[in-house]
Amino acid sequence: MIRLGVPSKGRLMEQTFDWFADRGVRLSRSGSDREYAGQVEGAEGVSLVLLSAGEIPRELRAGRIELGVTGTDLIREKLAGWKSDIVEAVPMGFGHADLILAVPECWCDCENLDDLTSIARDFRAVHGFRLRIATKYHRLVRAWLAAHEVADYQLVDSQGATEGTVANQTAEAIADITSSGATLRANNLKILSEEPILRSQATLFANRAAMDPNMKRFLNQLGL
Amino acid sequence: MTLRCDKQTVGKRLLAAFREAGAEEVAPDILLPAESLLDLYGEDIRARAYVTSDPIRGEMMLRPDFTVPVVQAHMENGAEPARYCYLGEVFRKQDMGDTRPETPRDNEYLQAGFELFSHETGADAEVFALFYRLLSPYGARAETGDMGLLLDAVRGLPLPAPRRDALLHHIWRAGRFQQLLIRFSAETRPRDFPQSAASWTGLRSATEMQARIDRLQADAGSPPLPAVWTERLKRLFAVRAPASEAVVMLRELALEWPEIAGAVERIAIRFDKIARAGVAPEQVVFDASHGRTTMEYYDGFTFSFMAGDRGWPPIASGGRYDALTSVLGKGRRIPAVGGIIRPGLLAELEAA
To answer: How far apart are CA B36 and CA B62, in angstroms?
Structure first.
């Protein structure tokens, strides 16, 4: 049996259902809207598991589901060494979001990461502590800043309303997922000119250990 | 698989050798206050420290390194000269990136260390010769460097102070250093700072921003650094040879670059003292870039010992960290040099 993990609500669920429907596999929630059980029609030996998108990486690695739909951002952030356990079966073409670094829009001397590096150095000298970057993507942001040799900063954890941390003076910059940038502008923030830290989209992932003939047959059926 | 008690045995043997060399044993706490100490480390260690919280003491971390707590204890109540030694675990998260390695690196390992606080000029040689004597039976290769040489070299460049300070600040980050050097070697175009209509937000003030803009505008008129200097820096960073050959190469460079002559002679004297302590200079490699990849608090002599398979971390490392003592001593400064050995790696070499 192939257990397919799909986000349990919202647009991500609907778009996932549409994506599979286009490939002849009908996924649906059984019973009422409140029940997290699902049905699969049009494919043999596949069952549907509805989960929070954030839990899908962990469940995939643990082998409690064999296939899962979630954002590349969550897999890369939450699973150190993900390539050893997980196969990226196919990017699904929706749920696009970029992980970006943003600073106050009023900083007219800050266009790119070089500026931020220099500002961080001045900031530390003036304030006696490192410039704070609020994020929940600690691993991705740290690895990216390390690759660009940025020093004099510190990450502060922010699990929600990250755009508000700058106005609240608990951070000087933020690193977060954005799709349209509207929330950033509303909070007087602007994106640095570098390429995003990560371009994320909804992706079908498979547990590497579950890549058996059954799985290959199902992926084949999906045109993969 | 090397047993924990075998690693302890090697560690205790090292500790005994350090005590014999005149060191007093100290045992810093394993749980250390996070906030004040973390700020002293470079991002590498900061990111890898296990941080936890205590309802009364606030943020605490599992000891990621011994040098800082040992220096702190000495600055509070030590007299000089002082020699300290210690043996205990350090804890560092090992993030493997996208692919899990076959044998993950340890996130908890023993360090046996020796730290010397002294104004004596032979301190570097004393510590290095002690480590060499303990590690040469393992076939370890010694590599050394000198951050003082590189810092003097940059200070000696004909650059306006803000440019020089930026280079000094990023000397440990090779890519960023190179990028700055390229920028300083070309004509700078004046830059526009288009005012934004957005309302001010965040802790950084408009005055701070203006100070940076003023600095950048003043900098735009600076003449480019003549190409001969980047060429010399390149030659300096590339010096890597057994000690006596390296000193000859450095002296040659110092003829065109008088600002490094003092540092070069200090290095020559250090190797003389190391030779007199019984270590043949041809056994010791001097690599001018060595210190750029070590801990950021080293600002003078640096050393590491390599052994075992390729890809192994150094089995021992250390160096001089005078500036750290002045940060922790709130202005009071004591010359200090020291290093650590990893007993776990020695135990693996013994078992092989």
So the answer is: 14
A176 and A87 assigned to the same domain? no
What pairs with residue B115 in β-bridges? B84, B338
Report CB contact under 8 Å: B196, A146: no
Closest C-alpha to A133, from A189, A181, A186:
A189
* C-alpha closest to that of B243 among B207, B276, B283: B283
CATH number for the domain harbouring residue B59 = 3.30.930.10
Report whether B109 belongs to an annotated binding site: no
Query: Would you say A200 and A73 are in contact if contact means Cβ atoms under 8 Å apart?
Result: yes
From CA B56, how far away is CA B77, in angstroms rounded?
25
Q: Using one digit for the tens of pLDDT, what is the confidence trace for B274-291?
A: 999 999 989 999 999 998
Q: Where are the alpha helices (DSSP H) in chain A?
A: 10-22, 56-62, 72-78, 113-127, 138-147, 182-186, 213-221
B112-134 b/e with 16+ CB inside 10 Å = b? bbbbbbbeeebbbbbbbbbbbeb
Cβ count near B35 (within 10 Å): 12
Pick from A80, A146, A188: CB nearest B198? A188
Query: 């286009």: which residue's tokens?
Result: A22
Alpha-helix residue ranges (DSSP H) falling in B238-276 = 243-256, 261-276
Which residues of chain B approach chain A closer than 8 Å at the C-beta?
A: 39, 42-44, 46-47, 95-101, 166, 169-170, 172-176, 179, 193-196, 198-204, 206, 208-209, 211-213, 216
Domain limits for position A152: 97-199
Distance from CA of A190 to the nearest CA of B (A): 10
Q: Do B209 and A107 touch (CB under 8 A)?
A: yes
- Identify whether the C-beta of residue B6 lies closer than 8 Å to the C-beta of residue B110: no
Total of domains in chain B: 1
Residue B175 lies in a domain: no
**How many Å apart are CA A194 and CA B13, to the nearest integer?**
52
Handedness of CA B19, B23, B25, B28 (dihedral sign): negative
Judge whether B232 is annotated as a binding position: no
Say what the pTM is: 0.90
Total domains in chain A come to 2
CB contact under 8 A, A142 and B204: no
Provide the shortest C-alpha distance from residue B223 to chain A (in Å). 21
Average pLDDT for runs of 10 along chain A of length 224 = 93 96 93 74 94 94 96 94 94 96 97 96 94 95 92 91 95 94 93 96 96 94 92
- CA distance, residue A130 to nearest chain B CA (Å): 8
Within-domain flag for B119? yes
- Judging contacts by C-beta atoms under 8 Å, the chain A residues touching residue B59 are none
In a domain, B257, yes or no: no
B212 CB neighbours in chain A (<8 A) are 109, 118-119, 122
The residue range of the domain holding B22 is: 1-138+337-352
